[in-house]
Amino acid sequence: MSTPRRRRSGALLAGGVLVASGLTLAGPSAPATAATSDPRSAALSARWLVGEIQADGLLHTTSEYAGERYEGPSYGGSIDAANALRAVGGHQATVARITDAIGASIAAYAAPTATDVYSGSAAKALALLVDEGRTPPTVRGGTDLLELVEGTVSTEPGLAGRLQDAYDPTSEWAADYANTIGQAFAARALTQTGSGLADEVTGYLLDQQCGAGFFRLYFAEKTAADQTCDGADPALPTDQAADTTALVALQLADLAGNDAEIAGALDRAEAWLLAQQRPDGSFADPQNGVNANTTGLAGWALDVLGADAAATRAATWLRARQLAGECEPGLAREAGAVAYDDAGISAARTYGLADPLDRTPWVGATVQALPALLAAPAPTAARSIAAPRGYVRAGSRQVLTVRGLAAGERACVTGAGRVAVLGSGAAAKVRVTVPGGTRNRTVRVSTADGSATTAVQALGRKRLQVALRVRAVRPGGRQVVTVRGLAPRESVRVALRGRVVAKGRATRAGTFRDATRVGARRGAVKVRVTGQFAHRSATTSFRVR
């Protein structure tokens, strides 16, 4: 197991709602990506994501329940976006704009009523504001956000350090929804601010790690004498979600330092995450199967923890679900967006992403995939596409060779139909059908950020022109056959009485001439000339007498 490696400190992703699982994400460090990583994929998604920020400086989400549609700001998702963009760099103005909007909306997000305080939301917002060097804003009366978070921390014996929501007990929604994810936010935020409650909060968080190495999502009942994971009832299947464990690891990574207990917890979490990764690099949520949200979180955490190979496999899987443009004509403007799963790509090709209800899961998946994409592998060669040398028959199937596609990189070959290609890191063989007609066709391989071309020299059907020097030849004499209408340097054959008597290539002007002996046999002689392919030919005849 490796200790956490960081390129710089400070939170880089601070929470947001997972599209289908209801979890939130957050994390501290920039991925410790290898020198062979490829920044293009993350930059592409970042550019698309910036375009999704609305006029109020926030991402918006759309959902539907019982036939009613709901639309509004996604505060948690906006925090995710701010920190994901900080991870890839180059978008500080957008990050600052989102941070301003979160600060101005803190009451609506963390404490919407006089009685309600959402502890996880408050801690998540505090982490963002502190990371951006902002003074915690006042939430209500004389209480600022730091004090609000500290007020959610239990000091009761046996529960010390545990986050808990405040709520109106008479409300139909009355419940304490605090969980390990909010606890992880609070551990980081309070440690960064030097709060006297940071150690207790972090200690309670570490108690939520199960013996297998994962962090459970839900706390024990407050009445339970043992608040640790191993002292509780068997963990629910939903507790064993890579999302939760990855998120906690990301929060703890910057707190490890010389703390052996945190370092040990991270090693166990890393080992558990590695055991959950599928051979194709993906991760699955117990309730929702394989998806980009879970894979993004887990891949990012493994990258931060130094598990480079596993992080690269996760990034490769994610990039294969990233829209690239030309092979998805109706989605060309969405290049960089990452699908939640394979079904999402299929649906987008059919229905597009214009409807906000269809677009929302793509926004969420792209946010959570973005930091993990920093570990995407670089191509091993320059981008190129090569066609067979020489002429090919129009209408035939041909194999082109594409090089320079990184593993997981989506590309499109056009100019001879439209063929989608998925890079593997090695040369790819692409079968295309050459369009009809004689012409040099430009075939292009395009990715979201560039292209390469080659020329396919196609020869279509043609009746050639054949001329004879004389119409009658004495036995044993010579006949001169002249062929015109050939392509420059096209190969050609001349047959007399069904036997090939001459082979060669046309001149640059497209002509071929040969003088051949006709033999002693008298009678009619059929002459057939054939160009490079059988559908380019002509016939004539003469007599030997």
Structure description:
The structure is a single chain. Strand 5 and strand 6 form a beta hairpin. Mean pLDDT is 91; it is low at 1-28. The N and C termini lie far apart (94 Å). This protein is elongated. The protein has helices at 40-50, 75-88, 92-104, 106-110, 119-131, 145-150, 180-192, 198-206, 242-253, 260-276, 292-305, 308-319, 342-351, 356-369; strands spanning 60-65, 68-73, 138-140, 143-144, 284-285, 289-290, 384-386, 391-393, 397-403, 410-414, 418-422, 428-433, 439-447, 450-459, 462-463, 465-468, 472-473, 478-484, 491-496, 499-505, 512-517, 523-530, 536-544. The chain is built from 14 helices and 23 strands. Strands 15, 17, 19, 20, 22 and 23 form a 6-stranded mixed sheet that branches. It is an alpha+beta fold and 545 residues long. The longest helix has 17 residues, at 260-276.
Search tags:
23 strands; single chain; six-stranded mixed β-sheet; 545 residues; alpha+beta; five-stranded mixed β-sheet; 14 helices
Beta-strand fraction estimate:
15-25%
Which assembly state applies to the chains in this document?
single chain
N-end to C-end Cα span: 94 Å
The percent of residues in helical segments reads 25-40%
- Number of DSSP helical runs: 14
Gyration radius (Cα, Å) is 34 Å
Give the overall form: elongated
DSSP E strands, number: 23
Main beta sheet: strand number and arrangement? 6 strands, mixed
pLDDT < 50 runs, ≥5 residues: 1-28
Mean pLDDT: 91
Given helix and strand content, the structural type is alpha+beta
